[in-house]
Amino acid sequence: MELFKTLKSVVAPLNRANIDTDAIIPTDFLKRIERSGFGQFLFNEWRFDGQGNRRTEFVLNKPTYEKANILLTGSNFGCGSSREHAPWALSDYGFKVIIAPSFADIFFNNCFKNGILPIVLSDTLVEILFQKTERQTGYELTVDLKAQTIRDEQDLQIHFDVDSYRKDCLLKGLEDIGITLGKSEKIKQYEILKNKMVHSH
């Protein structure tokens, strides 16, 4: 997993609440077992029509947002089934930060495991950010995980909360397996000690 560094990016605004995992990555595309390659199918039914043509009105099909790494969206993002493919698709597409008033619990946890920082802000602050993206084409934010701040080029600065353990994992680029491997020496010592105790009896 990549280390999370300070991120400056255009913000892609997707102003809808209750976006479920079926909308994020439709079930038709869940056949593969690798984590890569899902980005091309992200929001597939919203991005493309029945003939596979791009829907020009959809936000991610607009040239301004093609390289966006920050997604701004509505409440209860990632609801529905618990599939981990949803954060895989978002990460593979290029999103590193998702800002919303609330997230579905399982999706929220899966984001951290896949190198995505989900940030919860109040409805009021999210609405302010949506207004700014409407007023300014290519509106950018800088997300500093270490300082836990979001700022823009004007005078906006927001502090956000994040669990200290998860923050540390993102900053070090560690997921569950990496954390376990990092403790391999201690595990080995414990196994040796345990075997000695077993054999001494």
Describe the protein's architecture and organization:
By secondary structure, the chain is α/β, with parallel strands linked by helices. It has a single domain (7-174), classed as Aconitase, domain 4 (Alpha-Beta Barrel). 36% of the residues lie in helices and 15% in strands. The protein contains eight helices and seven strands; from the N terminus they run βααβαβαβαβββααα. It has helices at 21-24, 44-47, 85-93, 105-113, 123-135, 164-172, 176-182, 184-200; strands at 7-14, 70-73, 97-100, 117-120, 140-144, 149-151, 157-159. A hairpin with a 5-residue loop joins β6 and β7 (157-159). Residues 177-183 have low confidence and may be disordered.
Q: Any chance you could write out the topology, listing elements then pairs?
A:
Blueprint lengths: L6 E8 L6 H4 L19 H4 L22 E4 L11 H9 L3 E4 L4 H9 L3 E4 L2 H13 L4 E5 L4 E3 L5 E3 L4 H9 L3 H7 L1 H17 L1
